[in-house]
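User: Reviewer 2 asked us to show a designed sequence for the structure in our supplementary figure. I'm pasting the structure tokens here. Could you produce the per-position amino acids so we can include them in the response letter?
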């Protein structure tokens, strides 16, 4: 029986064949859902699975991140239902989610191939099957490339339905899959396959004037709409502006004027950039300034630079409603900077209700296969709000956005509940900040539930397999002395962040701070509960002793003073900086990664690593929004300089105390039985902090942790192009699942820079340390590059099989520990499912391997045939996009 799929909030249900994706099933059942590439690369069809399970065909993690996928999000174009599903649509047109005409495969015979200009060809097809094929003017079809298996290119329809024909305008490229065949393999009499119709670009009902803007072969869908207007005898004013380079690039001028003669009020204007010295959007700007028409509906089609410039002009200068701008943005060709006919190939239609539109990055001229409908994606400035924005932004009252009579409540001293002076930081609009992780309540609780299940499962499995009882006495002694101390640290951070959240000056910032506080409380409680589990096997782990140690043990006192000072800090911006840019990168990373994941793994403890990994996953989200907030403040047009000075001053004040707190934990690090060198651990966390400074846009502060930035201006430029959460480096180890944890190659040890005054200098001098291959990396001026990947697997049937398959390979090292396998490789590690399945005698997949994995380092990619780890995240990205 085929699975059923119900779409919410529209409340309609369809059937889905066993070999069919949700999106294809929607098409087959007549639904016009938002989509884009249909190959799992663009994220346009992202949805949320409320109920049910769906397998995902191969997709890019840039379209659906690991954290999104684990949080319940999916891609309709890749989702293959395994059970009945309830799918929440994140973007849909409430007035147009049903297809007027079904999307079907068809065949057609070529009737004409006519050259319109030197590089644009008119292709006319007569539809053979289906005999009742029809479409809405402005839609497009996929042509099946002759002689290939499944390769398609999409082109906009230039005609109106009714005569059984398809008229296309195709930009010719040397070697293009379709355009390269025009006049040769594709000529009158030839047969072509097609699929369609697709797209949401169409004429909208309205009484407003109509403004049309097109460039190059962007003529096609605009001409189709104009033909519809002419046939209907439209009474609305219609203004059509067409951009080309020279007069030789103009075509169909007589056709357009003839169509316009049947309209009540029509004017056609051509703009030749090489002779007029201006572009089509400039001519439109000048025309609208004359106020002959006001508030028009705008229909635009052409290359991205033209569309972007026109959209900015229409909204920014002439106050057009962005919801009344309907556009089709094409791919960029050789001359991305000009708006002529030689610049565009056909592009897919994106109506005003579809949040993303497709484009090439305007960097290089595409050729051959890349010249026609090979898309990358971007989000327009005025895109439809994401679900995160819908439920987060503008839900908090603000005297600047919602209220006009001040606050009805205030404190006894007269301060209002909203206080612009609650932080020394300043923003032109705090509500413009966005969390790059798009965290809000529903995914927060879902992920939190997943974390608890992960921890519970690890502990239950360890108990059943006797792993807890196998802990060495020395490791148990370390856990008894150290394990529960971090619970008080997490509790202190919870208290400080929960207090600060009350004063934050926008919903998006307050949500981040509130959810971080909740994560800290969860982490504190998980530690205490874990200690109670250990008591059943190793005797008492008294919380009273941990509390007394935190209050009186000299090793904990710098940390205790830090979190207590943090709780007494009134400026919420300072709390974020002190906690997330100073304390967490140094002390938090030392506790989670060095004394948690690294120490536990080295001592055969596969359970404590799970707790540390869960805390690290949550920290990675915190790191992402914190660095994004810092960059947001440093990019403010009015307040950037003052914000930089304020943030730098706070870091200079707090960082020495964070370093002191980390050094205070040295006795605990020395107590770890094996696997931890305290000096090396401090070296790594200081590097981590320097990388985070760079990511936050303040690389010049690396000297505070003994590292100086390498070409900070250039590094900052790279950071801006890469976006949040990325670090300029050669490789990117990770802690468990989730984003890469940066260990900087862009920060180098500053041998000449003195350590902060409050930090013992003997502990902060740069030293050589092992890179994993037996060599040492000197401190000095050379960067340390991490070029190894690895995986730690439990000693289970699956783990043993992986170890057996990989142990005899020259480039892989398999190290047997008491309770797990430590498998390492240089640059890349590939675990092929078929090989492991053959070793086991039954089939396994990526999930089977990851289920037996306690941690890994490197960028993980789960392919159809193998699980791969890359030391270089760029290489992983290139693989995913290939």
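Assistant: Here is a per-position design you can include in the supplement:
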């Amino acid at each position: 029986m085929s699975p059923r799929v119900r779409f919410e909030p529209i409340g309609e249900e369809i059937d889905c064949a066993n070999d069919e994706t949700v999106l294809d099933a929607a098409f087959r059942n007549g639904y016009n859902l938002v989509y884009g590439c249909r190959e799992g690369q663009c994220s346009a069809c992202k949805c949320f699975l409320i109920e049910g399970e769906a397998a995902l065909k191969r997709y890019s993690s840039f379209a659906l991140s690991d954290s999104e996928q684990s949080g319940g999000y999916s891609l309709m174009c890749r989702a293959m239902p395994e059970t009945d599903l309830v799918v929440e649509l994140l973007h849909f047109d409430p007035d147009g989610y049903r297809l007027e005409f079904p999307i079907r495969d068809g065949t057609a015979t070529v009737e004409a191939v006519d050259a319109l200009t030197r590089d644009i060809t008119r292709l006319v097809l007569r539809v053979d099957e289906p005999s009742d094929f029809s479409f809405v003017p402005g839609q497009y079809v996929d042509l099946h490339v002759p002689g290939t298996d499944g390769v398609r290119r999409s082109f906009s329809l230039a005609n109106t339905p009714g005569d059984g024909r398809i008229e296309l305008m195709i930009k010719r490229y040397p070697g293009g899959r379709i355009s390269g065949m025009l006049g040769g393999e594709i000529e009158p009499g030839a047969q072509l396959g097609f699929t369609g119709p697709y797209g949401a670009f169409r004429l909208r009902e309205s009484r407003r004037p109509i403004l049309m803007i097109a460039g190059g072969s962007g003529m096609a869908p605009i001409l189709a709409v104009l033909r519809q207007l002419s046939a209907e005898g439209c009474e609305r004013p219609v203004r059509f502006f067409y951009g080309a380079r020279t007069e030789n690039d103009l075509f169909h001028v007589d056709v357009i004027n003839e169509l316009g003669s049947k309209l009540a009020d029509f004017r056609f204007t051509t703009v030749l950039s090489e002779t007029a010295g201006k572009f089509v959007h400039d001519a439109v700007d000048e025309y609208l300034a004359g106020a002959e028409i006001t508030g028009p509906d705008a229909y635009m089609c052409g290359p991205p630079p033209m569309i972007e410039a026109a959209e900015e002009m229409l909204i920014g200068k002439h106050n057009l409603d962005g919801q009344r701008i309907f556009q089709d943005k094409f791919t960029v060709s050789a001359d991305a900077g000009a708006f002529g006919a030689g610049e565009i190939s056909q592009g897919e239609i994106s109506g005003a209700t579809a949040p993303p539109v497709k484009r090439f990055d305007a960097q290089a001229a595409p050729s051959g296969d890349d010249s026609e409908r090979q898309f990358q994606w971007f989000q327009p400035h005025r895109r439809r709000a994401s679900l995160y924005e819908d439920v987060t932004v503008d839900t908090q009252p603000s005297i600047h956005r919602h209220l006009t009579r001040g606050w009805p409540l205030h404190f006894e001293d007269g301060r209002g509940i909203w206080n612009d002076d609650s932080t020394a930081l300043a923003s032109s609009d705090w509500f413009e900040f966005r969390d790059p992780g798009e965290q809000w309540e529903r995914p927060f609780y879902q992920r939190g539930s997943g974390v608890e299940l992960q921890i519970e499962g690890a502990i239950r499995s360890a108990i059943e397999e006797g792993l807890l009882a196998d802990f060495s006495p020395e490791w148990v002694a370390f856990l008894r002395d150290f394990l529960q101390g971090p619970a008080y640290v997490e509790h202190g951070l919870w208290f400080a962040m929960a207090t600060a959240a009350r004063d934050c000056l926008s919903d998006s910032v307050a949500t981040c701070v509130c959810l971080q506080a909740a994560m800290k409380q969860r982490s504190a409680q998980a530690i205490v509960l874990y200690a109670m589990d250990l008591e059943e096997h190793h005797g008492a782990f008294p919380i009273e002793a941990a509390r007394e140690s935190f209050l009186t043990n000299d090793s904990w006192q710098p940390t205790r003073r830090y979190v207590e000072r943090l709780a007494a800090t009134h400026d919420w911006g300072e709390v974020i900086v002190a906690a997330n840019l100073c304390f967490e990168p140094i002390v938090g990373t030392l506790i989670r990664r060095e004394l948690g994941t690294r120490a536990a793994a080295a001592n055969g403890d596969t359970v404590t690593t799970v707790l540390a990994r869960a805390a690290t996953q949550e920290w990675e989200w915190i790191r992402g929004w914190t660095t994004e907030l810092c960059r947001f403040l440093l990019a403010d047009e009015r307040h950037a300089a003052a914000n930089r000075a304020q943030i730098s001053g706070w870091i200079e004040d707090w960082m020495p105390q964070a370093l002191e707190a980390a050094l205070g934990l040295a006795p605990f690090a020395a107590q770890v039985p094996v696997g931890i060198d305290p000096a090396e651990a401090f070296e790594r966390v200081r590097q981590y902090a320097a990388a985070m400074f760079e990511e936050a846009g303040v690389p010049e502060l690396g000297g505070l942790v003994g590292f100086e930035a390498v070409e900070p201006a250039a590094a900052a430029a790279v950071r801006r192009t890469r976006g949040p959460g990325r670090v300029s480096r050669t490789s990117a180890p990770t802690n468990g699942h989730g984003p890469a944890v940066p260990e900087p190659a862009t920060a180098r040890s500053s041998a000449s820079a003195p350590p902060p005054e409050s930090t013992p200098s003997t502990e902060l001098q740069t030293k050589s340390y092992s890179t994993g291959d037996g060599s040492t990396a000197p401190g000095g001026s050379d960067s340390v590059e991490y070029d190894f990947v690895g995986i730690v697997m439990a000693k289970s049937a699956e783990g043993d099989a992986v170890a057996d398959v990989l142990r005899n390979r020259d480039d892989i090292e398999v190290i047997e520990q008491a309770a797990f396998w430590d498998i390492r490789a240089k640059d890349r590690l590939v675990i092929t499912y078929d090989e492991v399945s053959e070793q086991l005698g039954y089939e396994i997949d990526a999930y089977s391997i990851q289920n037996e994995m306690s941690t890994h380092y490197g960028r993980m990619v789960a392919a159809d045939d193998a699980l791969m780890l890359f030391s270089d995240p760029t290489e992983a990205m290139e693989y995913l996009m290939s």
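For the response letter, you might also mention the following. Confidence is low (pLDDT under 50) at residues 331-384, 709-786. The CA atoms of residues 31 and 98 lie 4 Å apart.
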